[in-house]
Each structure stands twice: as C-alpha cells, then as structure tokens.
Amino acid sequence: MTLRHFCTYFDHRYLVQGLALYRSLAATCPEFTLWVLALDTAAELSLADAALPHLRVVPLGTLENFDPELHACRNTRSLVEYYFTCSPCLPRYLLQHEPSIQAITYLDSDLFFYSSPEPLFDELDGSSVGIVPHRFSPRAAQSHARFGRYNVGWLSFFRNDAGLACLAWWRERCIEWCRDQPEPERYADQKYLDQFEQLFADVHVIAHPGANLAPWNVARHVIGLESNNPNVDGQPLVFFHFQGLRRLAGPIYDSNLGGYGAHLTPVLRERVFRPYLHALREAEAITRAISAPQSNSSGIRRRAGGLEGLRYTAGRALRAIKAAITGNLVWR
User: Fold this and answer.
1) What pLDDT was estimated at residue 327?
2) Which pTM value belongs to this model?
3) Is residue 203 part of a domain?
4) For a FRET experiment, which of 58, 71, 301, 328 has its CA 20 to 30 Å from that of 263?
C-alpha cells in the first residue's frame, strides 16, 4: 500500500472541520500523512495536544521563514486573501523539505471522504499534476462560472519537472495577485488553474464523478446507494466538498444547496450530510477534551453586539427561512 501525503490548512475557527477531514481519511486511506499548516497559535497548540498519529503540524511561522515573499504579502491583502496565497506555498515547502514525498495532494479543509481515494490516484498514474473540475450544474454555471473551470478542493503535484514547474508557477502568480474578487483571467488562488493544461505537460483532469461532489454540481448527477454507501452516477462517492455549510441554530444546518439551485434528497440528507454532521460533533468533543479555544463548526466568526449583532442575527434568520422554504435544512 502506497503512503499518501495530503496537506491542508486552517486556523482555530476551522479546527473542527479539519479534524473531521482527518477522521475521514483515517477511515478510508490506511496509509497516509496529513500535513496541516496551522494558521494561528490556537490551532497549532490544539493539534499538538490532539497528538493524532497520521497528522503533522507545520506552524505558519515555519512556512513564512522558508518563503519570505509569502510573508511580505501578509500586510498587503485581507486575511482570507493571505490564506489563499498560502495554498501553493505549503505543498512547495513540503516537497522541498521532505525528500521522501514523491507526490503531495492539497485538500480544502471542508472535505470529507466516504470511500478510498485510490481510484483517483489510479487515474493520476503517469501524470505530473492532478486537478478537479467544478462540473457546474447549468443553474450554478450561470452565476459561478466566473470563478473558474477548476476547483482548488483537490490538487496533486508530483515530484517531476512538470509537476514542480507548475507548482512554482502557481505560487508566483499567487504572490503577485490573489484577491478575493473575480476578474476575467483570475480569481484568488483558483482561476490560475484554468491555465495549467496549456502551460504544462501531463496535467490530468480527474474524471471520476465521485471526486469533489459539491453544492455547485450535485444537481447534474444521479446520487444513489449501493450496499448502503452513496454513489454518484453509479460510482462510489469519494469525497464531498461541504462549502458554505452553516449552523443556523443548535443541531440545524443550512446545506447551502439552495444557493446553487440544488435540493436535498433523502440519500444526500441521510448518507452524505448527516454522517458529516456526526463527524463534526465528534470533532467538537475532541476540541473540548483538549481544552481548545471555542471552535465554530459552522465556520461563522463570533460577531459583536449592537447593530452589527442585530444585522448578523437577521441575516441568519433570513438564511434559515430560505433554506426551510427550499427544503435544504439538515439536522444532526
């Protein structure tokens, strides 16, 4: 069995999602290491206390010391834009500092695996770079195609000339510009992926429909069950991208499907979303056990009181109403 190397990043606000991602890899990928760039001290200390056997922590300061140009960007862009800028810098650091790593796969921290990723690595055999398309549904494409044809949820880079050159080029572009605002040829760290195939050899676009199932593409697929396991167009669901999932109140969540014109089916609710919500609950228990700072499994930052607090409460209530009307609420 090949040892698979994955990397991701998050701060303490996404600690719960990151732990859920780790647990899903542990259940589906027997031989793996998850390298985590801890974006703040709270996340770094919590992960150290958790002492997970297949997880290695990279403090943000370590990456910044290795990459001074990254550090120089810190005060020139917003926090989220700086985080986006880290996306190519982390795998580049790992490939340079860990000679045993022959391929590194970046994962967004809000992914969750349901079956083995080996079919994806089988697809990537002989490649230099692996990327996943958005596969937008027709409805989602109308509003979201401007964000690029490919998604940063999964990116694999192999230790060969083309793989390293592509990763270096992506990092250079993100250092130059990484704004959270779509333009015709670029958007954050993501739209640069549209150029990979034209500029570099052996870039493989993952075709497996179970890779990166997400709110923006679920409406174009047939989601079913085989032996009680979810499948996509007849193939196993490998991982779902829970972008935009939000806790509304207590155990009730907005699935974020409605924003893309999709709807929760019984299979999605029971076999995709509820297992993830259960994993978030278990991760919350871990953070409490290690006395971590209060993490927010919804990804929502704590808000101030007064008028700002009222606006936030009203916005959350409006989102709950919309999700209820469209049948896109899910609860654990």
Assistant:
1) 55
2) 0.90
3) yes
4) 301
CATH number of 195's domain: 3.90.550.10
Give one DSSP letter per residue of 84-117, joined into a string: HHHHHHHHHHHHHH-TT-SEEEEE-TTEEESS-S
Angle at 92 between CA 87 and CA 94, to 5 degrees: 105
Asked if 166 contacts 88 with a C-beta cutoff of 8 angstroms, the reply is: no
What are the pLDDT digits (tens) for 54-111?
A: 999 999 999 999 999 999 999 999 999 999 999 999 999 999 999 999 999 999 999 9
The C-alpha angle 134, 39, 72, rounded to 5 degrees, equals 95
Q: How many CB atoms lie within 10 A of CB 104?
A: 25
Which residues, including other chains, have CB under 8 Å from residue 289's CB and lie 6 or more apart? none
Into how many domains does the chain fold?
1
268 neighbors 237 (Cβ within 8 angstroms):
no
- Residue 4 is which amino acid? R
Domain enclosing residue 151, as ranges: 4-245
- What is the spatial distance between Cα 140 and Cα 151, in angstroms, rounded to a whole number? 14
CB distance 144 to 136 below 8 Å: yes
Q: Is 135 left (phi over 0), alpha (psi -120 to 50) or beta?
A: left
